[in-house]
Amino acid sequence: MTTHSLDRSTFGDPKNAGNLMPIEEAHALLNEWVPNDRLRLHMRQVAAVMKAWALEKEKSDERTALKWELAGLLHDADWEKHPDEHCRIIIEELEKRNIDAEVIRCIASHGPRYFGVEPLSKMDKMIYAIDELSGFVHAAALIRPTRYEGLEVKSVLKRLKTPSFAAQVSRDDITDALARIDVPQDELIQFIIDHQKEVS
Ligand SMILES: [Fe+2]
Question: Which domains, ranges and CATH numbers included, belong to the chain?
Fold first, then answer.
């Protein structure tokens, strides 16, 4: 990913608090904006993990969990068609649609090193950690004949220590993201395995 700072620190309009789109609408946007099946799967996986984390770990209500899910589902929506303007295009689209500022900010903070936006809320911090680890876990599953079946945290950890495996996944970003949350790496990896294996 190239660096293209968003050069801004406020997102959305506070008066849109609570304004969310139905998840079906977000899927429709994704289908329109992202022709690549693998990339859409990545976003559906991140969305599933984000939603499950909100409900199970944060004890969020359904409405709050939808925010987490929407941020996960749309975080890379502009990546395929606008790689050089990645993040800016989807952020501006959601601002146009008057979507809740917390969702927009969460998307903007999913790569602090690239977009120059510090994750502040728990939702911001979790998307950062889940995004990179989700892709990594998926790569670790894909090389196994049984895929997610029997995939253990320890084998994911071993692959993390192998720099040539899924080399595009930044180990520095994973370390940085984990340092910002109070969640052990093993626990998060297990959670990701458990919640994204059914996503197809
Ligand atoms: Fe992503």
Answer: 16-196 (1.10.3210)
Q: How far is the CA of 131 from the centre of ligand 1 (A)?
A: 5
Residue 1 has pLDDT above 80, yes or no: no
pLDDT confidence of residue 4: 77
Backbone angles phi, psi at 8, to 5 degrees: -155, 160
* Ligand 1 center from residue 74 Cα (angstroms): 9
Q: Is 137 exposed, middle or buried (0-12, 13-18, 19+ CB in 10 A)?
A: buried
- How far does the centroid of ligand 1 lie from the alpha carbon of residue 174, in Å? 13
Q: Is the pLDDT of residue 143 over 70?
A: yes
Whether the per-residue pLDDT at 3 is higher than 80: the answer is no
Give me ligand 1 centre to Cα 145, in Å: 25
